[in-house]
Amino acid sequence: xxxxxxxxxxxxxxxxxxxxxxxxxxxxxxxxxxxxxxxxxxxxxxxxxxxxxxxxxxxxxxxxxxxxxxxxxxxxxxxxxxxxxxxxxxxxxxxxxxxxxxxxxxxxxxxxxxxxxxxxxxxxxxxxxxxxxxxxxxxxxxxxxxxxxxxxxxxxxxxxxxxxxxxxxx
Length: 170
Ligand code: NI
Fold this sequence. Notes:
With 170 residues, this protein is an alpha+beta fold. It has one domain (12-167): Peptide deformylase (Peptide Deformylase, Alpha-Beta Complex), CATH 3.90.45. It is 27% helix and 29% strand. The protein contains 3 helices and 7 strands; from the N terminus they run αβββββββαα. The chain is globular, with a radius of gyration of 15 Å. The chain binds nickel (II) ion. The site of nickel (II) ion (NI) has 5 residues, from helix 2.
């Protein structure tokens, strides 16, 4: 297993709709396990394949960051089945360094996808877990959390991020 490089704002893979996974082969299995290691090393509570430059519909989530193995969820081709409520809270992203902004997300969601054994899996989530799922599913649709902000706020952040990229901080 290895730790992968997390791509940052400005990388074209982050703004592309990721491809559906048709074959659950060794490559996908290895990618998923490497993503888990990368997420733990970051450390982060969620990671989507486009963040490691793989345009594939694969996400990993673990609110315990590896403390409790039962909390780890790996989902292939995850879909948002239903959502309710609204919760606004601060959010950040490993691919958008040093930016934290308040984002409104559904307070409860139901997500459906495929696990690494090829079985269909349905997950009910609320609060922070619901937020992470929405954030990661956004990633595989080429959307970043800053895309939820007002145009003014977004343009200010983009200016700041461009500057950071230029001076070589990321
Ligand atoms: Ni993110």
